Amino acid sequence: MTRRAPIRAASALCAVSMVIACRAPAAHDAGRGALRPVALPDLSRTAEPVRAQLREGEARLRRAVSGSATAPSDLAGAYGEFGKLLMAAEFREEAEICFHDAETLAPGDFRWPYYLAQLYRARGEAAQSTAALERALQLRPRDVAVLVWLGNAYLDQARYDAQSLFDRALAEQPRTVAALYGSGRAALARADYARAAQDLEQALAISPRDAAIHYPLAMTYRGLGQTDKAEAHLRLRGPGEVRPPDPLMLELDAMLESPVAYEVRGAQALDKGDWKAAEAAFRKGVELAPAEASLHHKLGTALFLDSDARGATEQFEAALRLSPRFAKAHYSLGVLLASSGRTADALAQLTDAVRDDPTYVEARLRLGDVLRRSGRASEALPHYDAAAALDPRVTDAPLGYALAMADLHRYRESRDRLADAVKRYPQQPVFAHALVRLLAAAPDAGVRDGPAALALMRDVLAREPRGVGVDEMMAMTQAEIGQFGDAVTWQREAIAAAQPLGRPELVQRLTAGLHRYETRQPCRTPWFDDDDLVR
Amino acid sequence: MSGEFYYPEIMPPGVALFDYDNDGDLDVFVVQGEMLGSAPLDRAFFPPRDPASLRGRLFRNDLHIAADGTRTLHFTDVTERSGIDARGYGMGVAAGDFDNDGCIDLYVTKLGSNQLLHNNCDGTFTDVTKASGTASPGWSVSAAFVDYDRDGWLDLFVGHYVNYRVEANVKCFGLAGARDYCPPHMYPAQPSRLYHNNRDGTFTDVTARAGLSAEFGPALGVATADFNGDGWIDLYVANDGQPNQLWINQRDGTFRNTALPAGAALGAQGEAKSSMGVDAGDFDNDGDEDLIVTELTGQGVDLFVNNGSGVFEEQSARAGLREPTLPFTGFGAAWLDVDNDGWLDIVTVNGAVTQSVEAAARQERFALRQRKQLFRNLGGGRFEDATSRTGPAFARAEVSRGAAFGDVDNDGAVDVVVGNASGPLALLINDVGQRRHWVGLRLVSADGRRDMLGARAAIVRADGVTVWRRARADGSYASANDPRVLAGLGDSNQPVTVRVTWPNGRTETWTGIAADRYTTLRQGTGR
Prior knowledge:
heterodimer, A: mainly alpha, Serine Threonine Protein Phosphatase 5, Tetratricopeptide repeat, disordered N terminus, B: mainly beta, 8-stranded antiparallel beta sheet
């Protein structure tokens, strides 16, 4: 496809706009010269809805350009709006021309240098981005978004005057998280740890969900020598960018009518936990691309999270009609079916997921769990093994394997696996818990080892808070070593802890256990269906 | 490039600079790929002239130095003669003498099973993968030979990337709907592997035993060095889109990842970046190993400055590196003293991984080209972008990936061999370094056979200034470097004193080491 003829303002209009540029306060380099021609790029590889948008945008610009009565500011607006659309579609070269032309026509309109700055920032052209932000700031010296972005740009250049920009932003809006975050980072950069801690802690207090704040705060506490605090914040850190409130960029980000753009918006909404917004975005994506299986799958996920199981099922099934070997859709449908008790159907879906992607760890794990819980523990074993080999980080695999072994009465093997896992994953208490239960209550006397269970329990008690599970395990252990009086005491504590939980069947079971200990009988069931270990 | 946007297409090739025939000059090995998917080879974007050439290539360096010092460089393709048959989708290469016979071997990483190629010391190689137990199937990119347990035998770390199958290639699109390569998070990471050398030609997978299986990410770059100054070699792994890892050697066969508390896992804002290439070097001449890590467009390179005890601070902005690297996607990179002024500079080779929408709209088939960069160390922790002064070689935009650094013409200046995706090899000859004085060292084992990778040299100039350098073949991206140590002496041509700390922790000193030549220092022959 050849390019359309470039759009040029009529020469008379050029002269008018140049005159306007001379009269208007020169917020930028007045030597910019004539408007640059804008050409619609080859759209053959873009999605049809985007093509339509861009053609319509170009048509609007042409109408504005050809209209003899178009005021320069309106013409600037036309260039600018087309520029935004081009930028949203990542045609940044053409967008840059539009914004430059808009800025030439309306040098007092702060939007155009602002969008230019964001465009350069997206391309990594920091110096140009900074220059454009400085022009925008001259036009709107109190704009918080500009102050923060420019402060960030100065930080990238290790300029200590970044601090003054963040201070100005905070003077305008003291609770701007991005300004506090930037101020904290500026302080950290110059090793002013006290100020950094103050600003970053304040940012976190205002916006605890901004997990990205934790990392610079951790580095701040490291600088202060407060290692414990540093480690605590490192554990809490998360991804994301701390951005200032930015209505202009929000507007731009919402412009593009493409399936991928809606998919991205939906994913962002999911990250924020806004299921309804995610659902709306994915639904729109599906409208635009009804044959795209992944969009159906994502919509199904949002619906599932929003507790609409039926809607989710429909979307997962739609995804599979479009793409019968879509492993993720099989998995999601399998999970949904399992949660509603349709075990046979769930197994079929999960089996298909594994068939379609043998490296799909979550599918392997879930298939193993469903098999194990439906009494097919031996069939679960190879899936747990495969999951463990594919991703040794995943602790559900060795745990599931050990539980399956116990279900098969292969208690020694279960014990050995758990003992190995306790060493390999010292930060995961679940393995110690399972091992204690097995050592205290396995039906196989050759596996039971009360003293070993007690030694483990001492570690557990030193590291973990008391609760139903911990108390119950201690009761089992005490009973195994013949200390039934202590077993009774611990079991009563477990019952007391269980009562406020609203789980009467749990209380009933624990009470049955209490009677057992009162009649000096040890426990011979390591775990029960309602244990968190196996749930 | 098939046109189907198969993910592996944007990752290779790696290159190696190593002296395979022990004639004193560096030869070149480059991996090759193949056509992924079911389309025939002639439908590739850039079909090879000779399909039979689609295997790893070995080029012998026929360097001739005349009596007047004039150098004539020429390379001969000796692949056939060498017996190297490295087919499949090659990614990278590591070099090291794993059997201590005095001849450098190669480990080729791939999509699929890797290959260990034993150098038979007669110009030929034998594939000993199966016998050695080092196939490590999956998708590996960077690997490193490293003697992590100080037993005098090189072990092998293999960085694995993601779980990927061609038939399950995910289709990804840009915002406007154009097809593009996927980001790494579309595929789950694969665990990397550590293989212990059993000294009998075989290796044992000790990944779990060493504690390396508990944490892993999609590994792309690997650098080995003693980061905490305890005399034991550690591992730094650059992961794509996930926190990097600093595996500190616990001296008992195990490692502990301290990257996060040490400040070397993430960018300055706590973001997990798309780390590709990595190198360790003492850029500030304070005696410890700092790190440079190349990143994606918009992320900026990372400079992790070591405080001497394995704790780092990210200082790319303060160093003047962040801004000029933001527009680029960097792969191969290294610390090297380009001008031999005694301060380590940085070279990065770049190339995008996602299509420029405009270039695609202009029907450019391979819209990923970027130029290379050179940053000159100004001292005081700062760098200047000196790229514009390097000449046309750096200005040429290519899709660069691997880069091997070494003195190809033995003139005391570090050169660069660059592997370009779907492009020719580039050999960049350094015309600057030899204007100043330098000292070159080959640090070898007691029997003189093997380069002692990981050995550190403190080079003390006549004026008392000390610079620290390390014998290393790993680092950069998917590539293997010249293991010789090259240190710039600036304007001083006086002999230097060299204090070497060997990988086993022992230290020896040599005095009167002449400038402007290479000297071999054999373990056990110093004071």
